[in-house]
Backbone:
């Protein structure tokens, strides 16, 4: 068991390092080919922290581990709100912009409802996956249009986030090495997670909902904690909500388009409703002064701990 845990941790480290190299290389290459820093920065901010989930899900789907793939996405979204947003709120009070409550949050809740409706027949088929991907295209168009209406200082900040040193050779090397790290890390994580599930006597769905989901959410956790520490509270909240939308529409959509995903009944009546409930909880917790403080952060962390306890009760 200790060996498998070590392999999982090594795979996770390789996955995170590979994701960082790949994103930096892709951003630098895009700039070298004349794409505007604003567009590159907007894409990197939205997609960068979701690369580990994408790598793990594509690997799991290709290996036929569809339960693990579905569990990873739903579990990651629960971890995003409960663990990451809760932890960031302990570092510094998080301001929730009214626009987020009126636009991004309804879009997230709509995506949760769409997933539930599509999965009612017990499957996410290829057409369902394409429908989710179409929703992602619409989302990106909306984000781009909104971002261009932001103040010039915000657009400059997005452009600054796209800066990457090096020419075509250096950035090409980053892409190749990063992609190799993503593939290797994802395979190590998936294989060791399956072995741990067998050793612990739990299903692959549960292992995906718990340790795999937490592992692939670590980049979001690091980004949100650093943003909260620096006082960039808008980034901390926006990073979580944006990642949840990317997970549901892009990653789960691409997974289902690649291979139809069976949906267990417990997902329909327990985990997907819980994922929606975690997202809904932001509304009452942020009411009044539109701030998630330390008390609200503790509530989210306690709810996440209860979720983990429920999922892992078979280990006791």
Residues:
């Amino acid at each position: 068991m200790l060996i498998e845990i070590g392999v999982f941790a090594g795979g996770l480290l390789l996955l995170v390092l590979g994701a960082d190299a790949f994103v930096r290389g892709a951003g630098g290459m895009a700039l070298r080919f004349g794409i505007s820093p604003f567009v590159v920065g907007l894409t990197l901010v939205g997609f960068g922290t979701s690369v580990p989930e994408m790598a793990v899900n594509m690997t799991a789907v290709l290996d036929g581990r569809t339960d693990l793939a579905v569990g990873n996405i739903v579990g990651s979204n629960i971890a995003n709100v409960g663990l990451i947003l809760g932890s960031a709120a302990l570092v510094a009070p998080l301001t929730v912009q009214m626009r987020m409550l009126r636009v991004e949050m309804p879009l997230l809740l709509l995506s949760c409802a769409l997933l539930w409706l599509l999965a009612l027949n017990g499957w996410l088929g290829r057409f369902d996956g394409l429908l989710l991907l179409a929703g992602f295209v619409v989302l990106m168009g909306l984000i781009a249009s909104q971002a261009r209406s932001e103040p010039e200082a915000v657009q400059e900040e997005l452009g600054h986030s796209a800066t990457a040193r090096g020419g075509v050779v250096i950035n090409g090397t980053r892409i190749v090495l990063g992609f190799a790290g993503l593939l290797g890390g994802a395979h190590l994580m998936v294989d060791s997670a399956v072995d741990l599930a067998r050793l612990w006597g739990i299903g692959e769905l549960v292992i995906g909902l718990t340790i795999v989901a937490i592992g692939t959410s670590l980049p979001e956790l690091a980004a949100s904690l650093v943003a909260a520490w620096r006082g960039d509270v808008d980034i901390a909240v926006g990073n979580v909500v944006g990642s949840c939308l990317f997970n549901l529409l892009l990653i789960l959509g691409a997974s289902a388009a690649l291979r139809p995903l069976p949906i267990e009944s417990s997902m329909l009546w327990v985990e997907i409703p819980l994922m929606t409930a975690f997202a809904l909880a932001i509304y009452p917790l942020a009411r009044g002064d539109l701030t998630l403080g330390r008390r609200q952060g503790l509530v989210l962390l306690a709810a996440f701990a209860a979720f983990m306890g429920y999922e892992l009760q078979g280990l006791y």
Summary: The two ends are 16 Å apart (CA to CA). DSSP finds twelve helices and four strands in the chain.
